[in-house]
Amino acid sequence: MKQLILFIGLWIGCTTLCAAQTSDSLIAKDLRSHGVTFTNNNAVTLLMSGQEKFDDMFKAIRQARKSIHLEYFNFRNDSIAGLLFHLLEQKVKEGVEVRALFDAFGNASNNRPLKAHHLQKIRESGIEIYKFDPITFPWVNHVFARDHRKIVVIDGRTAYTGGMNVADYYIKGTKVVGEWHDMHCRIEGDVVNQLQAIFLRIWNKVSSQNVHGAQYFRGIHDADYIKGLKQDTCPTAHNKCVGIVNREPRTSNEIIRRFYLSAINRAKDSIKIINPYFTLNHKLMKALRGAAKRGVKVEIMLSTRSDIPLTPDCGFYNAHRLMKAGCHVWMYTAGFHHTKIIMVDGRICTVGSANLNARSLSWDYEENAVILDRCTTQQLDDLFDGEKKDCFYLTEKQWRQWRTPWQRLRGRLSHLLAPFL
Q1: Taking a C-beta distance cutoff of 8 angstroms, is the pair 275, 340 a contact?
Q2: CA dihedral defined by 200, 201, 203, 209, rounded to 10 degrees?
Q3: Which residues, at least 6 apart from 336, have a Cβ–Cβ distance to it below 8 Å?
Q4: pLDDT at 245 over 50
Q5: Is 164 exposed, middle or buried (0-12, 13-18, 19+ CB in 10 A)?
Q6: Which comes out higher in pLDDT, residue 1 or 13?
Q7: 402: helix, coil or strand?
Q8: Does residue 6 belong to any structural domain of this protein?
Q9: What is the Cα–Cα distance from 103 to 114, expressed in whole angstroms?
């Protein structure tokens, strides 16, 4: 009898373990079959606010010895960018190579762009800086692909990625939306080499240079001389499995879409999503409905405020439809949540630049770190659960109280434009 009980216990334990391993291992398998490389010697430190990101990154930049590479959608011409470029100028004087890249449309579309005289001054300080896809007559080139990635690589050893550009509103907020919530992460380990390769490929394309060499690819080595940074406190630090999903037009068009579909379709227990531009497409909508239908607890957090018009209406419309399909929708009211994360089954998560809209999934240059690690995923789960205190839970009654008939109609109409938002 004891042997039978022991056998049953072992069988249940093994079955539970196998089931728990299925989602993350199968998602990784899906991505590997489409060219994504995972490495197992990485540390990932989550930077949960603008203040944390800039404090940590500036501290690392101050200790750089060889090279600093930055790729952003935009550098807003404000106090944070001023501090960054001043710091980079000092590093150039120390002999550090500094290369910066930004998207021309991203620059033109923000309310404090870098203008020609700013760029001239930056270049005179020794910093190499280029625009991706400069806007030229007849001014339609940026209707299509834009460089929306956020990558910083220091000495080929330490990298930063996530949802934040360079702007002081990540710390100060704005009058329109109030507090601006977003997050980033710092990565050390072999996956840094992947981020460096992504940067150098686009840099060489835009600058017509040929920057290459082993000196830029040293992610396997710890940057032990860079001290005082926030630490990865997980027991798995420096042993985390991480891969980079990198979307580039005409070469990896579907990779981020494929990741989200695989993550949602493979989920067995739970899905948690925070994303600012929730326009979705038919396949993602169908996948989320299917997950809820098969018993997965699907939780979605969206902001009631936004920095752009129309797109939020479409997102609210989708949220209402998913609520009716059995998903749990939390509406964040304490500012604007620009965070772009998904957590599945407490085992796999992503931090990166991609929104859940047509532009990110079908047009732009995007990049997300996919992290197969319970501890990091739990940290993001805790972030999600902690933010619920600043949300209201969406019900049909709440929906009708919150959205006027005109606003509900506007959501329906904007949904028709989802392929272009």
Answers
A1: yes
A2: 90
A3: 174, 177, 178, 179, 180, 181, 276, 303, 305, 306, 307
A4: yes
A5: buried
A6: 1
A7: helix
A8: no
A9: 11
Q: What percent of the chain has pLDDT over 70?
A: 92
The Cα 288–Cα 111 span in angstroms is 35
Mean pLDDT throughout 350-365? 95
- Average pLDDT of the chain, as a whole number: 92
Please give the angle made by the CA atoms of 160, 52 and 159, to the nearest 5 degrees: 10
State which H helix or E strand residue 237 sits in.
Answer: none
Instruction: Name residues whose C-beta falls within 8 Å of residue 387's C-beta, 6 or more positions apart in sequence.
Output: 181, 274, 301, 330, 332, 337
User: So what's the pLDDT on residue 417?
Assistant: 87
- 117 inside domain: yes
Total structural domains in the chain? 1
**Residue 219's pLDDT band (cuts 50, 70, 90):** confident
pLDDT (tens digit per residue) in 15-57: 333 334 558 889 999 999 999 999 999 999 999 999 999 999 9
Mean pLDDT to the nearest integer, 251-275:
96
Residues comprising the chain, all counted: 421
Query: Has residue 135 got a pLDDT over 90?
Result: no
Query: What does 152-220 look like in DSSP terms, one character per residue?
Result: EEETTTEEEEES--B-THHHH-BTTTBSEE--EEEEESTHHHHHHHHHHHHHHHHH------GGG--TT
Q: Which position has the higher pLDDT, 43 or 14?
A: 43
CATH at 259: 3.30.870.10
User: Which structure tokens are listed for 282?
Assistant: 């038919």
Which residue range is the domain that position 121 belongs to? 22-420
Tokens of 88: 């980079």
Torsion-angle region of residue 71: left (phi > 0), alpha (psi -120 to 50) or beta? Answer: beta
- pLDDT at site 420: 80
Within its chain, how far is the Cα of 139 from the centroid?
28
Residue 8 has pLDDT above 50, yes or no: no
Q: How far is CA 359 from the centre of its chain?
A: 14
Tell whether 11 is covered by a domain.
no
Residue 314 lies in a domain: yes
